[in-house]
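Hey,
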Amino acid sequence: MKEIISLIRMKQYIKNLFIFAPIFFAGEIFNIDKTINVFFATILFSLLASSIYIINDIMDKEDDALHDKKKKRPIASGKISVNKALKISFLLFIVAMIGFILMDLYLYPLMYFILNILYSFAGKHKAPYDVFFIAIGFVLRLYLGASAADVYLSQWMVVNVFFLTLFLAIGKRYSEVVKKDDGCSSVVRKSIDGYNKEYIYILLAISSAGVIFSYLTYIIVVNQNLLTTAIFVVLGLFRYLQIIIIENKSENPTEISYKNISMVVIFLLWILTFYWMSNA
């Protein structure tokens, strides 16, 4: 069971909370019926994502075996055979898609699956397309969440999430570039050859500026009472940049989001302030 949990990467499910973003921004988070729909959509999407993680691990089996951490993954270590992993992946895909079809929400999950198959076979090997594939995947999460809750999805929110996830993905590449420059033999991502520190500094500057601009525009268009919340958005970006550049801990943005106390506090303050000011 431990190997199965590791195989489906349950720790990564926190990423799927982005599916709740549209219902939160629409002020409908306490609408029980809509929230239940979004909850089930998130569970199904997590199963679908796990099926893709497995396919990705099968594709990367040999490269992961050379990585200091990834070599412990069930497929790379040989604890779970490729044949068994494929069966689990297929089962997860079928269960998820049947659920989405019953909910009449199959379009965006299917697009996400196709996008990530393309990513696994080609997209992840070439910079900067690899980070664009990742960001588009999060945008599809937004559209799924909006459809599940039947709420309006601001295009400025879409732009904001695109730049935010682009920023996080680029930050992860930064730590991998640092490891490569230090001669670390465990850096096996092929797309890293298309990055260097100077290039990533520029990409981080552009993507973080995109986050701030699109967030401020969203607020000005939707509700100017929320301008105060921009303080925590900018602070969060500054703190994250400090973590990845000064502390060099950006290899796993997902873990930083819930393990780093300062990031958790900033995020909670943003949520509380956003909710308070939106009802002011």
